[in-house]
């Protein structure tokens, strides 16, 4: 299915949160000691993941969402249908502002995010977003 308009079910959220938690094992976060894992369901049904990869030059750090987007492209492309990221305890974490922009670019039309305040749309977490439509 290229674009699903069905709500993401509870089992899928649980699987994504588990995949994000497993991705924590790949985090390289010796500076912050704050590992982050991310997982997303792609429009064709596969799951992509990411973890934060820090740098001695702190600002060069790649957030978990960066490696997730790389995984998306390197494993065949597509768009993101459902997304979650977690902290080192596996608890749901809000994507940082920059990463909301990253997710916006690669979202499926009705992408959902599991957030600290429940399931939210991209428009709810990044209203009136700047994007390709502005260029
Ligand atoms: N971090 C992410 O990987 N994603 C986010 O959305 C929030 C922040 C990482 C960056 C850094 O390695 C650590 O969390 C502490 O800021």
From TrEMBL:
Keyword list, A-Z: Hydrolase, Metal-binding, Zinc
Enzyme Commission code(s) on record: 3.5.4.5
Cofactor needs: Zn(2+)
Family matches, as InterPro entries: APOBEC/CMP_deaminase_Zn-bd, CMP_dCMP_dom, Cyt/Deoxycyt_deaminase, Cyt_deam_tetra, Cytidine_deaminase-like
Pfam families: dCMP_cyt_deam_1 (PF00383)
SUPFAM superfamilies for the chain: Cytidine deaminase-like
Gene3D superfamilies given in the database record: Cytidine Deaminase, domain 2
Family as reported in the entry's similarity comment: Belongs to the cytidine and deoxycytidylate deaminase family.
Designated name of the protein: Cytidine deaminase
Species per Swiss-Prot/TrEMBL record: Kocuria varians (Micrococcus varians)
Biological classification of the source: Bacteria, Bacillati, Actinomycetota, Actinomycetes, Micrococcales
Chain's gene name: cdd
């Amino acid at each position: 299915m290229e674009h699903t308009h069905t709500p993401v079910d509870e089992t899928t959220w649980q699987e994504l949160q588990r995949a994000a938690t497993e991705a924590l094992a790949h985090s390289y976060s010796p500076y912050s000691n704050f590992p982050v894992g991310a997982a997303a369901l792609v429009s064709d049904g596969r799951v992509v993941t990411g973890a934060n990869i820090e740098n001695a030059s702190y600002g060069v750090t790649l957030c978990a969402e960066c490696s997730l987007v790389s995984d998306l492209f390197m494993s065949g492309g597509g768009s993101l249908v459902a997304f979650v990221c977690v902290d080192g305890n596996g608890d749901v974490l809000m994507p940082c502002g920059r990463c909301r922009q990253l997710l916006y670019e690669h979202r499926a039309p009705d992408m959902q995010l599991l957030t600290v305040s429940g399931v939210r749309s991209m428009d709810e977490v990044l209203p009136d977003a700047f994007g390709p439509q502005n260029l």
